Write the structure tokens for this entry.
Amino acid sequence: MKRNIVLHLGAHRTGTTGLQTYLHKNDRKLKEGGCDLLYPPKSREVAFNYFDPKGELGIYSDENIVGYMEENIASAKLYPDAVGKLRRLEDLIDRIHTVYFSIRNHEDYWKSSISYCVQKNGLKLPDDEQLDKIAESERGWLEVIKDIRKLFPDGVNFHVREFNWKTDNPKQQLIAICKWPLLKETTLERKKHNPSADRDTLIRTLSERGAHDAVTRLTAHDSFELFSPTQKQKLFDLYMSDIDRISELSDVQFHSDATSKLREDLTPRQEKKTSGKVKAGEKAAATQLVCFLHIGKTGGTFLKSQFSSKEARARNIILSGHNMTLHKSLEAYGPQRRLAFFFRDPEERFVSSFYSRLRQGRPTHDVNWTAGEAAAYSFFGDPNSLAEALYGQDERLQSAARFAFSSIFHLALSHEHYLASPQAVENEERLGNILICCETKNIDYHWEKIIGILDAEEITSGVGRTNNSTSRGNVELSDIARSNLAKFWKKEFEIFETCKKVANRLGFDRVR
């Protein structure tokens, strides 16, 4: 049987998507030239030994053949069952002409794999014990390559690429490895594919999942750090050993930049020593950005009316719109941004929100109903009837009530929408990131403190005018309505109680 298959085995996070994207872009040209291809997603939809090129040549690319990133992370080892996984290709072994595998320095490989799996696959951020196991593992790339190599007979070409060699040019990689004239006629688009999540994106992802301990670990550094200096050194030493030993293999062609350059590029830099851990809230406050979360019907509109966005930005303050949330601010401005917000008793806010949208925001605003709001108000003319219907006997009204909560603007954008959970609020306080957390009815009392924190002492008109949304806010709800609201908005009330505790600790105490 003719050996005509080039087998690209990865590894993960070494530019595999870029190579596969290049193959996809040139799929038609290569097939017309007699080269059949198999790569994701098609390779994930068939058996691993499915490939049967009809042309003179074939390229099969799939990094999952030798294992999965999640297995590596769980076992704290690089592709621990590479031999067993490769046996799934038994029917193709005799047709493989060239095997191509890429390696990457261990610290970057593990960081990239972990961040990808955390963001995309829901993996829990490995704890310190697991990271230590990874750093202590003696299974390097050499051991993986030997495992792969032993399954193929003599005569099979074996190529290993160091990550920095032609990183952004899969065309030149394949030309050097395959030496096919056909490849020179293909086109290349230099673009980074499937990049790792940056630290702020990862922090937002973990925060949204409620993984607040993991968020705290990541926010302890100004850059994306997983491994300690000692762990980094171990990973670096293993990689340098890998490079030296792989270079000496007689049956493997190793493609890399000069080893001396690699050592220079990869040598861990000495980290600045500090007298101890940086305490929450001690980061340079003068240069830190303050993000004001505008929770509807809590008094934010008045605050925003007192000085323009331009004036606020001059003070490093972002006066956010209703689209900005605690989680979104993490990604937009980084985990060291500070937060300011007002909050309100859910019953009061419910009544105020209902009437505000009933009158379409007037007199402060003039925003027409959405179709959903128009439908909701056709069923309910007052907040009490809406709340009573939430668990009423009439299934039609119960359905309409739940639809109304998801359609009436300020009800849909609840405290939960903006602040996520009690745990998220507590975590931000623990990190020292909350500057202002004040209940609506206490804004007047704490107005001087608020404008002092915002460095806006020239604003003096706050007293008595902080919230024009209170009209009809004292409408009395029935016991049934209040009970239903507490049940339906359970998390809303929990966030409110948490905010009261935070406000008290920050000195925005309740007015007696």
In short: Residues 285-505 form a domain with the Rossmann fold fold (CATH 3.40.50). Strands lie at 5-8, 35-38, 57-61, 96-103, 157-162, 253-255, 290-293, 317-319, 338-343, 434-439. The chain has two domains: 5-196+228-266, 285-505. The chain is about 45% helix and 10% strand.
